[in-house]
């Protein structure tokens, strides 16, 4: 009597008829459909085609692996086998794709945690740290304070590029005192010593009130040109000021560092983060402009520019 559970196949190479009640014929159409639908996942190694043991039909099967999770931090790592839970660790089975996605995010600087059977991904933030209790990023005063201290500590080039404040006939301007790649001291000395009086010209910068940055747009730049607008007295005054700011800047940065380190609240630190350049420069201005030379020369220059009604002008204002 025929057994309908027996599958018979013919091997063309050996010309042998094989039979077995352990073999199941898989629907090739359904197999190919899955192979097409999951071609990307299979190619990336996330899974393969298997057989559902209950229905004996082909299905896509995701590869899985085991992770251990630190209960105190929600950090995780791959392990060889499923861990038994301990007071500090527990184990979970996750898909290979989930793990690779999470691990790739961690490798590019994201914060990745495992909680409630799910990977959670957060952006690294300069003023926040991961909070396990809420599974979120929360403000971290200690971390933020360190960030602000580092900005102040490394502010030398930024302050020099911004430029120190000075007034001329009642209006405030900026003079950068960079060293590299542009050396502003060399520029000023060349204008004083190497440039004919008639060709003498000096850019006069201003600060953008909205951004607190030095305006460098050529259209908005003002100039002092020629011997009357840019006399030798003014150039020598700027050289003296630049020397002062160059000399006293390291000490001023240390002062703002100490000031920052004494702050214990977020609003105080936010203010310093936003204004540390001007805080440093204003402290220097208060110190340097009290020096007898600065007081005398500023008075002379104010009288000179006021009496001649000279103010720096843009090229457009000059009709150029």
How would you explain this protein's 3D organization?
Helix content is 41%, strand content 23%. It is an alpha+beta fold and 320 residues long.
Q: What's the short story on this structure?
A:
This protein has 320 residues and is of the alpha+beta class.
Helix and strand arrangement:
Blueprint (H helix, E strand, L loop, with lengths): L6 E5 L4 E5 L7 H10 L1 H5 L3 E5 L6 E5 L1 E7 L5 E4 L9 E7 H12 L3 E5 L2 E5 L5 E4 L4 E4 L1 H13 L2 H7 L1 E5 L2 E5 L8 H10 L7 E4 L17 E4 H4 L2 H30 L4 H23 L3 H16 L13
Antiparallel strand pairs: 1-2, 3-4, 5-6, 5-7, 8-9, 10-11, 12-13, 14-15
What characteristics describe this protein?
three-stranded antiparallel β-sheet; 10 helices
Radius of gyration: 37 Å
Distance between the first and last residues' Cα: 110 Å
Helix content: 40-55%
Biggest β-sheet: strands ordered side by side in the sheet = 6-5-7
Number of beta-strand segments: 15
Percentage of residues in DSSP E strands: 15-25%
Spans of at least 5 consecutive residues with low confidence? none
Largest sheet: 3 strands, antiparallel
Rounded mean pLDDT score: 95
Helix and strand content put the structural class at: alpha+beta
Secondary-structure element order, N to C: EEHHEEEEEHEEEEHHEEHEEHHHH
How many alpha or pi helices?
10
Task: Please state the overall shape, judged from the principal axes of the Cα atoms.
Answer: elongated
